[in-house]
Design goal:
The protein contains eleven helices and two strands. It has helices at residues 2-33, 36-45, 48-76, 82-99, 101-115, 120-148, 161-184, 202-226, 233-250, 258-267, 274-321, and strands at 189-192, 195-198. It comes from Erwinia plantamica. It is a multi-pass membrane protein.
């Protein structure tokens, strides 16, 4: 038993070391892809009012995303302090946006929540619900925007306006199906590879849609402001939704190049020049991706240094509550 425990201890240390190395390597790769000269120009020359208003909305967006994990807390019933949940959620979201879901959404969540005292099965349920919440809001917003025809599609594009409208209607049908399932399904629990998953209540499902939809709407508004409101907001939101799916399919960290390509294809020649679109999206990257990532990196290192004492305190609090 002693040898087995010692071996597992060394394995955990090795895996932790590999995780840190992977994060550092991915951060370096991401940093090398960013044109820091252009970033500096945007910071110093962009419209101050638009930047300040957008920064305020970035704060709103990250706080809204933090509610995903608070919904997960209600879903799982764990007793971590809400400020710890919000902190973990912020760090994971910032890393998720820049270094992919596998690093930020999965590995970082398992690392931090386990360090704070949660079990692997509980973390799996939190992660699953968070992912579901994010895409449920996407489905609702995209269903409304696509079916309304708010996004003009250029001729010769791989998808036509009629097809996009049909997709929107299909997405709205899924929303109705999911809500009906949450409201009326008699079977509420499933076991997937040893992990128990429960269907949320109708009330929780409505909360998932409301919170996630709000986050997607805020993200679209940030880009709309940075485009100096020269394009209709529903159109900007629709292009963002299309680019988000394209980023997931192509699977490039932070969607570098994908976001710009989709916006240039769908908005160029309408009301904005190529330069205005690139400048707006670069400003968006600075305030929504890069700045939060730098803050998240500092908070991550602080949380790692405090994890043992926080876990001990959490365990004491749980024992008192029991």
């Amino acid at each position: 038993m002693s040898q087995s425990h010692t071996r597992w201890k060394w394995i955990k240390k090795g895996l932790t070391g590999l995780f840190f190395i992977a994060v550092i390597v991915l951060l370096v790769i991401y940093a090398r892809k960013v044109n820091w000269h252009d970033v500096l120009n945007v910071i110093t020359n962009y419209n101050r009012t638009a930047i300040l208003a957008s920064v305020a909305l970035v704060v709103v967006s990250y706080l809204t995303y933090g509610l995903y994990d608070l919904i997960g807390q209600a879903y799982c019933g764990h007793k971590l302090q809400k400020r710890q949940v919000m902190l973990v959620s912020f760090i994971c979201y910032a890393f998720n946006l820049t270094l992919s879901t596998w690093v930020g959404g999965v590995a970082m969540r398992y690392r931090l929540y386990s360090r704070l005292g949660l079990s692997g099965s509980t973390i799996t349920r939190i992660f699953s619900l968070s992912i579901a919440t994010n895409w449920l809001g996407y489905v609702l917003v995209a269903g409304i925007v696509f079916s309304s025809g708010a996004v003009p599609i250029p001729k010769g594009w791989f998808i036509g306006e009629g097809t996009l409208r049909a997709i929107g209607v299909g997405l709205l049908a899924f929303v109705v199906f999911y809500l009906a399932l949450c409201a009326f399904s008699k079977r509420r629990r499933w076991t997937v590879k040893g992990h128990k998953l429960a269907l949320p209540s109708f009330r929780m499902a409505m909360l998932q849609f409301a919170v996630s939809s709000a986050n997607w709407l805020v993200m679209g508004m940030i880009i709309w402001l940075l485009f100096a409101q020269q394009v209709d907001y529903p159109q900007v939101l629709g292009v963002l939704l299309i680019s988000s799916i394209a980023g997931v399919i192509i699977h490039i960290p932070a969607g570098i190049g994908v976001l710009e390509a989709v916006f240039l294809a769908l908005l160029s020649g309408e009301h904005l020049s190529h330069g205005a679109i690139i400048a707006g999206l670069l400003a968006y990257r600075v305030i929504y991706f890069i700045a939060p990532l730098l803050l998240a990196l500092v908070l991550y290192l602080w949380l790692e240094s405090r994890a043992k004492s926080l876990r001990h305190k959490n365990q004491q609090d749980m024992q008192k509550q029991a």
